TrEMBL record:
Pfam families, per the entry: Tim17
Assigned GO CC terms: peroxisomal membrane
Official protein name in the record: Peroxisomal protein
Annotated source species: Lentinula edodes
Length: 213
């Protein structure tokens, strides 16, 4: 089989939806590594415990879980969309994306681990933020490729509404930290402890300016 034959297969519209599932898994894995590795590395340096080997294992496990879960979710989501499309005679429905996301989210991110919780909280924040009115649409109405659309400069949320959301969010999280700290995601709780509690304690100039006690 020569290269042209392979390219013909890959570009054949008949196989596009199936190959898109494979490409989605690939992109999910790569994106997961890019996002989680630097985050896990920084958190390990700032708040990690144990020797270097122990910290490297933690970084590896977090990166692996994030990458594989995103790969599984994207491939499962695309598969469910394709199945629904076939069941409905080749037609796409508005509810298909919700159903696919619902099932994929439950199966892939339903287990409450530190990594999954961070991802779910991030998604929740984006969903809540989507209800903030924006000054205008960041998307062009003219037909163009999805990537070209994604490159359009985003329009920031309406400043008045965003200010209210920021105030409520910070007020809520600071109250939770003080009164119900056990309910906050552990990574965020550790960061907040470092910022707001560790900064209240020192023994001398060294522990005041150089490092915590």
């Amino acid at each position: 089989m020569d290269l042209s034959t392979i390219n013909d297969f890959l570009l054949n519209p008949v196989f596009h939806d199936y190959l898109a599932i494979l490409k989605g898994a690939r992109n999910g894995f790569v994106y997961g590594v890019k996002v989680r590795f630097p985050h896990a590395l920084v958190m390990s340096i700032l708040f990690g415990r144990g020797d270097v080997k122990t910290r490297l294992k933690v970084i590896y496990r977090a990166t692996k879980q994030h990458a594989f879960n995103l790969a599984k979710f994207v491939s499962l989501y695309k598969t469910l969309l394709l199945l629904q499309k076939k069941v409905n005679g080749g037609k796409e429905r508005s509810a298909d994306t919700f159903i696919a996301g619902l099932i994929g989210g439950f199966l892939v991110f339903g287990e409450r681990t530190a990594v999954n919780e961070q991802i779910v909280l991030y998604v929740i924040a984006r969903v809540v933020a989507s209800f903030i009115p924006r000054a205008g649409s960041p998307y062009s109405s003219s037909p163009q490729s999805p990537r070209a659309t994604a490159l359009v400069k985003p329009v920031p949320p309406n400043p008045q509404y965003f200010a209210v959301l920021a105030a409520v969010s910070w007020g809520a999280v600071m109250w939770l930290f003080k009164e119900r700290g056990e309910t906050i995601q552990p990574g965020m709780f550790n960061s907040m402890t470092y910022l707001y509690r560790d900064s209240e304690v020192w023994k001398n100039l060294k522990t005041l300016l150089w490092h915590n006690t």
